UniProtKB/TrEMBL annotation, chain A:
Protein role: Part of the ABC transporter complex PotABCD involved in spermidine/putrescine import. Responsible for energy coupling to the transport system.
ABC transporter domain residues: 8-239
Protein name, per record: Spermidine/putrescine import ATP-binding protein PotA
Organism, as annotated: Siccirubricoccus deserti
UniProt KW keywords: ATP-binding, Cell membrane, Membrane, Nucleotide-binding, Translocase, Transport
SUPFAM superfamilies, sorted: MOP-like (SSF50331), P-loop containing nucleoside triphosphate hydrolases (SSF52540)
UniProtKB/TrEMBL annotation, chain B:
Domain of life: Bacteria
Record keywords: Signal
Protein name per its UniProtKB record: Polyamine ABC transporter substrate-binding protein
SUPFAM superfamilies the UniProt entry points to: Periplasmic binding protein-like II
A Pfam family this chain is assigned to: SBP_bac_8
InterPro entries noted in UniProt: SBP (IPR006059)
UniProt keyword annotation of Nucleus present: no
Organism of origin: Siccirubricoccus deserti
N-terminal signal peptide: 1-26
Amino acid sequence: MTDAARFVVFDKVRKTYPGGVHAVRDLDLEIARGEFVTFLGPSGSGKTTSLMMLAGFETPSAGDITLNGKALANVPPYRRNIGMVFQNYALFPHMTVAENIAFPLTVRRTPRAEIEAAVLGVLDLVQLSGMRDRRPAQLSGGQQQRVALARALVFNPPLVLMDEPLGALDRQLREHMQIEIKHIHARLGVTLVYVTHDQGEALTMSDRVAIFRDGRLEQVGSPLDVYERPGTSFVARFVGESNQFAGTIREVRGEACVVELDGGWTVPAMLAHAAGVGARTIVSVRPERIRLSASEGAPARVAELIYHGDHIRVRLGAESGQELFVKILSGAAPEWLRPEAILRAAWRGEDARALDPSPADAPR
Amino acid sequence: MTGFLPKRAMGLLALGVSLIAGSASARDLTVVAWGGSSQAAQREVYYRPFTEQTRVPLLEDSWSGGLGILRTRVQAGNPTWDVVQVESDELQLGCDEGLYERIDWAALGGRDAFMPEAVSDCGVGAVVWSVGLTYDGSRLRDAPASWADFWNTQRFPGQRTLRRGPKYTLEIALMSDGVPQSEVYRVLRTPAGVDRAFRRLDQLRPNIVWWTAGAQPGQLLASGEVVMAAAYTSRMFAARRDDRRDFRVVWNGSVYAVDHWVVLRGSQNRDNAMRFVQFATRPENQSRFPTLAMQGVTNLRAARQVDPAVATSLPTHPDNLAVAVSLDVEFWVDNIEELTQRFNAWAAR
Amino acid sequence: MRRTLPQLSNWLLVLPLFLFSAGIFVAPIALMLLRSVQDPELAAAFPRTAAELARWDGQDLPRPEAMSTFITELRGVRGTDRISFAANRLNADISGFRSMLLRTARMLPQADGGDAAETLRRIDARWGERSTWTAMRRASGPVTDYFLLAALDLQRDDDGAVAAVPAERAVFVGVFLRTLWVSILVTGFCLLLGYPLAYLLASLPARYANPLLVLVLIPFWTSVLVRTTAWIVLLQRDGLVNGLLRRIGLIEQPLTLIYNRTGVLIAMVHVLLPLMILPLYSVMKGIGRAPMLAAMSLGARPFEAFLRVYLPQSRAGIGAGCLLVFISALGYYVTPELIGGGGDQMISYFIAFYTNRTTNWGLAGALSLILLLATGLLYIAYARLSRATGPAR
């Protein structure tokens, strides 16, 4: 028996393109059987390359990938038995829905009756039972997406890969499909590796999120982990929103610390990287964790109120020139919250994290 | 062109063709010949001196024959060509159809000043060319002397090249079979004679490489691909002179014909066109042409003034004329379609 | 009014092109094709004779009155272009008719007198033959099937029945079949050579694909004549190809690569290859890598993935490329003329021959019409076939 926690293993996997471009550097990652793992990162961060190496369409320059204990290095893609859903579905336009879905079974020389049963079952799973004789061009984007999904699942692969499968859908359909894919994953118990650059999608669907940056794995953890306890200032910025302030650590007490921000405020935070008193840091606070009041905290002026329906975004200007955003639920806005109002902003020490001082990336 | 197809419609057809060819307003005098070394010689002795002496600018063009091309140009009205060098069959057919202006022979020095084959109502003989047996003297020790030798693959092993088409080829086949020069067309006018010519070609078929462009026989001889050729004699002598080839021509049984200057009907440069024809047929101008082109000329006084060293290499030299056959224009006008069909059916077998 | 205005302006925008193509292209072609069924020359020169011949039952010889009508009319058109056109037309049917008619017109006595039939027979004995007069009856118009029959190696005999022409003159059916066969072979070789190349071009990144595409296009922009002549240099007995083969020891005696079918195929495939590659390339560019990757991820070996997924998707390109090459090949004659042997002429050679050389435009029109019909039928068959099996859209 192989170790269920080590179903897919990336071991020091590296991909270098001719000309010295490092697409992936020393990737170490273990994925458990049945897990839903999302590769998240901006474009060019190495997430798709890593997926393609797992699928067999790219060859690692160094390192090993194993699937269920077997090294994949010399296994061609068509023998890996991995289901894959492509960015633009890659449906075969000259085949009907049923023929598309039956394709992986016909290449495996499955008996016809079995194919028929499997196709019907999976059509039912993706709720396309009435569409079997249509051609892909006669389907909506969402329906095409379901066909691609059904085709990747019909041969019961233990591992399914999805490369930004929902990118072409509009927002409502995308959210609907997110839930549906999550349910199918839950029902089938298949291991799923999902690539996206949409952090909301990653948080909604995954058991674990692997965040890529410049070919490196920045952080791996549950959605809660990466949102609430980002390990780096990049993760804090990329996953959800955050206010980030540069400052210097003045005091360390166990996991807690006190930081003097460059604007002059002294604030509490949780120390989230290895550094001592006097080190530079970036303090990151989620906008919804900042409390506004008339009496407590640092003084600031309301520069702007932006109405978002379910919540209101408040842009504040501090005396030091620093700017911060605060999110308040629509119903919970106090009546003194008006433009130009002078008020005070504060947060609890456990809601702020003192992170590595790497500055934000240059605007892309 | 009257009757069932309306004249206007034919005009439209011709207009379509002429629009493609390029439209014309006030044009310079345009003279059209057959390209190659012959037209290069004409440029030297006719075109440039004509413009220098008359101050009439002259454009030149080249073509490769075809009465249909002339007919469409004339029927379109205002043809873009003025003077054209045509073959004898195009002269006769086009003259009957009224495609050419009449020639004023008095202005040319009278009909008697020219060889008889050069004189007609619609055109003036321009050059005399011929097709004859040719071989490379540096490759063949044993010199062939007649078309019978051309067929003798025992004495002269190797390939031969003939023009792909019935014209000259059938005459040559009959002469190789022992038909004397004077009898060729009498025999060819009978069905049995045509059969005899094709049977004779059958015998040589495995040894024949066909040529279609006049430059090919020289290349084939030079590369050793063939040992003998039925070729334009002028090109052979030009290769002798320019490329130092030891090409030799057997005049015995050569077939000669005359090309003519014609002026297309409706030419807007008619007067200058006629002046050019006069210029190009004057003895003092024509006599300079053979040295360059290795072709004969038609004005009798010009022929006498030709450099004697060159004269023996021309189809018009009396010794050469005596053993040659004059291409029978009427025979070919009557029979070119049927014999071309038959030739192609034969060649494809 | 509001809705017709933009429509009117749309019409005005295409009007110049419409007039241009109608005047330059459609009308001349239509007129040329019409020539294949018209027979105006004889009736134009001899209107009353033509009417007389139409009444003749075709047995023995026409009535003496018809003969003297003919003599009168012949005298009337002497020296005009009308007699020349009529003579050409009759000569197409019976070789030698042209000179016989013109000589007869020249030699006719000035005054009528005596037996008209005897007068004609004294000038040329052929006037006493029935076949001479049936040929004239066949040509008396205004419409005729003579040219269309001739284009199919058929003729009407003196009794009006359709019969095959003598074997030694039967050339066109063979040439049509040869034209089709050569075009099919050229199309097949172009597909075999062009498909992998187009695939390579479509799968390479643009920085490699674009220069290669230019290499494909350069010959496309070069004149057919230049390319054909270049092949003569390469393929001749002492040419580069034979020299190379001999130097590397593959052959001892030079191969005959030119002035035969081999040479024609080599040169035509080269000349027409871009027409195959370009549509294939554009279709393959649209397919992209994804379907092959998808098929392989689903378990198909590369060859099966290609056969079941890529090939069917590239079928539109195959169809367009084959159609372009095939139809272009049908009309070729410069390359077969210069590189082919005696048995390699294609039908366009004869169309050009009758159009330019002998001005037998009726036969040229008939050959063109048959070529056009054959091409049209093949195109319809292709369209049917691709609709029947293609994706339902």
